[in-house]
Amino acid sequence: MAASIFRRASKGFLTTLNAYNKPKVSVPVRQLNLLEYQSKVLLENHGVTVQRFKILDSSENATEASSSLNAAEYVVKAQILAGGRGKGHFDNGFKGGVHLTKDPNEVKNLVEKMVGHKLVTKQTPKEGILVNKVMVAESVDILRETYFCILMDRDHNGPVLIASPDGGMDIEEVAEKTPERLLTMPIDIYEGLTDEMALKVADFLKFEGGLREKCAREVKNIWNMFLHVDATQIEINPLIETPQGQVVAVDAKIQFDDNAEFRQKEIFAEEDTSESDPREVDASSHNLSYIGMEGSIGCLVNGAGLAMATMDIIKLHGGSPANFLDLGGGVNEAQVQEALRIVISDSTVKALFVNIFGGIVNCATIASGLVKVFSSTNITVPTIVRLEGTNVVEARHILQESGCNLSVTSDFEEAAKKVVAKVN
Description:
Blueprint: H1 2-5, H2 13-21, H3 36-45, E1 53-56, H4 62-69, E2 74-78, E3 89-90, E4 98-101, H5 104-114, E5 118-120, E6 129-130, E7 134-138, E8 144-153, E9 158-164, H6 171-177, E10 183-186, H7 195-204, H8 210-228, E11 231-241, E12 247-249, E13 252-256, H9 265-268, H10 278-284, E14 289-292, E15 297-301, H11 304-316, E16 321-326, H12 333-344, E17 351-358, H13 363-376, E18 383-389, H14 392-402, E19 407-409, H15 412-423
Parallel strand pairs: 15-16, 15-17, 17-18, 18-19
Antiparallel strand pairs: 1-7, 2-4, 2-7, 3-5, 5-6, 8-9, 8-11, 9-10, 11-12, 11-13, 14-16
Helix pairs in contact: 4-5, 7-8, 12-13, 13-14
């Protein structure tokens, strides 16, 4: 049960496809990626208590910015999406992407050593990730750490609240070793999170006296934010108690429902794509889904099931996919052309496998898009096309009459053998 409760919001079948590639670095797929400071801005805008902070993209105003916070101690944190920043190192030899200092004048020196340099951690590529922004925040005293999360959970058919007095650690480990230290509370999507439920959470997290009401208020604000931004998960780890009697969200992970992008345009416009594969970003801009792999066969398909089957049959016959691009269901000719451009832009592609089963997709649309690209572009990689489904007869006629260098077949396995043979 714990495994299902703590399952992170689904990244779809694209994550599964990464298993073929076995990347050294896990890159989030088909989900909005926000930097730490962006998450803090969202929390603050919804009434959740966070540390006071400033964002800097150079050391020019660092001293002035840190002085304006008027903090007893400052935490200076490089802003990249990868974890392990505190134990990382920069390409200029500077160690640590997270530093503490009580001297506002020292903040400038720290920012200067971070901005414009690549930070290398256990979760980054070996060459590191360029740091463009640094967050300078007041350092808060931590008396006690707790864990709080709201996420959409399939097993409960809706949102679930999860809380534990054991914050600042791996919550899956807490669930496994001390399940009694874990509160799991399904939330009725119509009734919402009531005051009674919020106070129950505060009691479970052992916030007492005046902190009880403060914690309940934070819980309600996080729930309201969860609804307002169409989140699939908001995880606060840790949610802390300070010696000064405050309840503060120190760190947050937020995931959003991609289907609600039309309602959350401002939030999605904030996505940081500097660390993403540019081909994924390119595909996404055309409403396509792309995954880079390590083989030599480019794959242009439609639908999750067919995608996985295509990967499997290529592997079965001794080949290896170089990439994968899903056209989806409502594809048009222009998208077919963009998809083909993206797939063959990978220099490792030695052969191309176009495998389409037309249900919603019109095979003739796919065929016309392919012909336009092959007629106007010098594509030298051998291409095997397998089409079945809606308008397939017309589609095959379009391909056969085009004069383009395409090998067309209707048999799935025969097509897979052909494309693997072209590479071998």
